[in-house]
Amino acid sequence: MHLFYQPELTNGLHRLSEEESGHAVRVMRMGIGDRAEVTDGRGTRATVELSDTNKRGCAFQVLEQRFSGRPAFPNVAIAPTKNMDRLEWFLEKAVEIGVGSVCPILCSNSERRILKPDRCEKVMLAAMKQSQQDWLPALLPFTPFMDFLKQTDGHLLLAHCRDGEKLPIRSKFANGSWILIGPEGDFTVQEVEAAMQHGATAVSLGNNRLRTETAGIFALSVVTSGTE
Questions:
Q1: Were both Cys, which of 28, 40, 46, 181 would link to 65 (CB 3.0–4.6 Å)?
Q2: In this predicted structure, what is the pLDDT of residue 226?
Q3: Residues 103 and 152 in one domain
Q4: Domain with 48 in it
């Protein structure tokens, strides 16, 4: 069944948004009596039956409701790419693979210094529905890297291209870890030193030099491959 999103599902609001309703009626050609599934993005999913197919707000009746706990997915702090298409590709694939939170970070070598979150949130929501998940990952505010280090709990796994000892990323991953991915020009020496002073572990993503968005997807794939 098709999955729709209604963030106020558990508050008793049994009507889809105008955007979701338009998709149900115009694209899916759904009618009264058709069944679908609805999630609130916070672990609750309901099997529903449409009772009204108004394009501005389809009403539905809940037939069954269930809750699933939040998965132990890794978190990623990543410097947004200059090309927004590449960042959106990363967000889409990260959600499909499994990510708990994404924090865009502003680094010394960052080429993108302004980020509009609305489009990013839409990409993540679409990916959550497409991959049939019930938890919408959090998109945190665009944060300067040094501020991120000061205010973030959880073990930090620092992926960088500079010389020095690095451990396989999967060997150091634990629940609540943050994977840190720098900009196209990499983290600066000062940023690497600051992260290490905050308890970060330098990790390896293999021998090849990866683009920012590729590094993020590779890291997520490696650490989530053993979570099932």
A1: 46
A2: 57
A3: yes
A4: 3-67
